[in-house]
Amino acid sequence: MKAHDGMYIGGAWRPAAGQDTIPVVNPVDEQVIAHVPAGTPEDVDAAVGAARAALPGWAATPPAERAERIAALRDALAARKDEIAGTVTAELGSPLPFSQAVHAGLPIAVAGSYAELAASYAFEEKIGNSTVLLEPVGVVGAITPWNYPLHQIVAKVAPALAAGCTVVLKPAEDTPLVAQLFAEAVHEAGVPAGVFNLVTGLGPVAGQALAEHAGVDLVSFTGSTAVGRQIGATAGAAVKPVALELGGKSANVILPSADLAKAVNVGVANVMANSGQTCSAWTRMLVHADRYEEAVELAAAAAAKYGERIGPVVNAKQRDRVRGYIEKGVAEGARVVAGGAGTPYDKGYFITPTVFADVRADMAIAQEEIFGPVLSILPYADEDEALAIANGTVYGLAGAVWAGDEEEAVAFARRMDTGQVDINGGRFNPQAPFGGYKQSGVGRELGPHGLGEYLQTKSLQF
Ligand code: NAP
Ligand code: MG
Questions:
Q1: Which CATH code, of 3.40.605.10, 3.40.50.150, 3.40.190.10, 1.20.58.410, is assigned to 6-246+439-461?
Q2: CA 336 to CA 191: how far, in whole Å?
Q3: In the 8-state DSSP scheme, what is residue 191?
Q4: Distance from residue 255's CA to the centre of ligand 1 (Å)
Q5: Minimum-distance ligand 1 atom for the alpha carbon of 202
Q6: Ligand 1 pocket, 217 CB below 6 A?
Q7: pLDDT per residue over 90-137, tens digit each?
């Protein structure tokens, strides 16, 4: 695979400050496909310097011109759609059709939405005798994970650029190649030098240096709760805004009046997509006791069909972590009705799609984010119990409700402590605010709410 051996800083590929590199591994066959430079605090410092230098010019660029550059970025990404999909398949292991539709398709849609928003957003408003200016927050430090590697980058960089901010990105060490492709697209789009900068590297080295850098005005992080907590604490000590997107343990609530087969089949597909590596996945299915066994059989059959179609998880650590949870579920007394902790192939980081029945709400597999193709099915006796189970984790990122009519589903959704709920299989909307209640995070991404995260207000009184 093609890889740059430098960092994209100040509008050019520059040699890295250090000599160390990071191997990029294909999770399907465990082969090393490329190496990228391991960034040091020196690289981060150079990138933040370039972003600071570019900030006054970009912040003063009329929004319509910023919109033109973001539209050009969308077009550059669209022109590279196949290369993006092939690269994500190689470094993440997801099946090519999924890479094309989601890993390449979604970021193009999101970039397009910010090209439109940058042109139409009201960066000024009137309140009584005041004019309120919505100004860019400044230099953004963006730290992204590997699960939707390009989407997570675009969901931070596109609104930041629309707002007039400049950016330093530290992508996940497992998926740096698509981040380098993104930097090429930014360059082709004619975004001025220093407005976007890329430093590849390890989280505790390059990521931490970026999160702690005094020249960064806002840190936007997506990833694990443990790292998010640390980044939030660092930002708090420096009195800096922070956006955290930390995952979840979302509930798929199937009310007694629902179309059970549809709700179960869509629910299983939701969990197995991207090999279960989706922070908003509905990893807990809640079914009324009267229809529980029927749902379990349907889910087991649906999961078995995914066995051949699913990709691996991203790396050996994740595979072992997911297997550990499956073993824990068995040890805690849950019943495996599909899959299990066994190895489906002798190579690659594969996990067999797994479904647990007889799951109690206090089990680890019902409380903790597993981040693999593992579904837990829990019974409930009445709506109040279903609600208590749905809301009974530290997370609150997403969820689903199924019922005979929309009103009934919406009434239940209003009582859920979570950031987004799909009603009877409602489609994902790339402009709806995405983010969490409780420990799922702080702040929102996507659409106008996502743009708002990168703005601060200045009130002028007349
Ligand atoms: P992670 O370590 O939190 O990684 C997210 C990003 O933060 C990566 O770019 C990572 O760099 C970086 N990072 C790591 N340590 C850092 C530090 N001390 N300071 C600054 N940045 C740092 O997550 P992970 O280890 O890849 O995955 C672990 C678990 O996190 C998963 O099993 C899952 O539960 C959760 N997760 C959630 C999401 C989500 O969308 N909410 C996404 C991915 C993972 P490296 O790539 O070098 O580690
Ligand atoms: Mg990590």
A1: 3.40.605.10
A2: 52
A3: P
A4: 35
A5: 47
A6: no
A7: 999 999 999 999 999 999 999 999 999 999 999 999 999 999 999 999
